[in-house]
Design brief:
This protein has two helices and four strands. By secondary structure, it is α+β, with helices and mostly antiparallel strands. The strands form two sheets. It has a two-stranded antiparallel ribbon with strand order 1-2. It has a two-stranded antiparallel sheet with strand order 3-4. Bound molecules: zinc ion.
C-alpha cells in the first residue's frame, strides 16, 4: 500500500533570530521568524538592550533581498 499518507512534521522553519527550528511563526521577505521571537520583538522597547540586536538581525534579511 501507499505510504503517501505517512505525515512527518516538515513544516518547520529555521528562525533567523534564535536559529531554532520552529513550526509557528511569520515570514518576512523570505526569512522566517518564530512566534517566540516575534512576540519578543513586539514587546521589546526601543530603549531595550535587545532592540538593536533584533534590528541587526532584521537588516540582514533586507540586505539579502537587495543583494
Ligand atoms: Zn526564533
Amino acid at each position: 500500500m501507499s505510504e503517501a499518507l505517512q505525515q512527518q512534521h516538515e513544516l518547520t522553519h529555521h528562525c533567523i533570530i534564535c536559529g531554532r527550528q520552529k513550526e509557528e511563526g511569520i515570514m518576512i521577505v523570505s526569512e522566517f521568524i518564530c512566534e517566540d521571537c516575534e512576540t519578543e520583538m513586539v514587546k521589546t522597547d526601543v530603549r531595550d538592550a535587545k532592540y538593536p540586536f533584533f534590528i541587526h538581525r532584521m537588516k540582514r534579511i533586507f540586505y539579502k533581498k537587495e543583494g
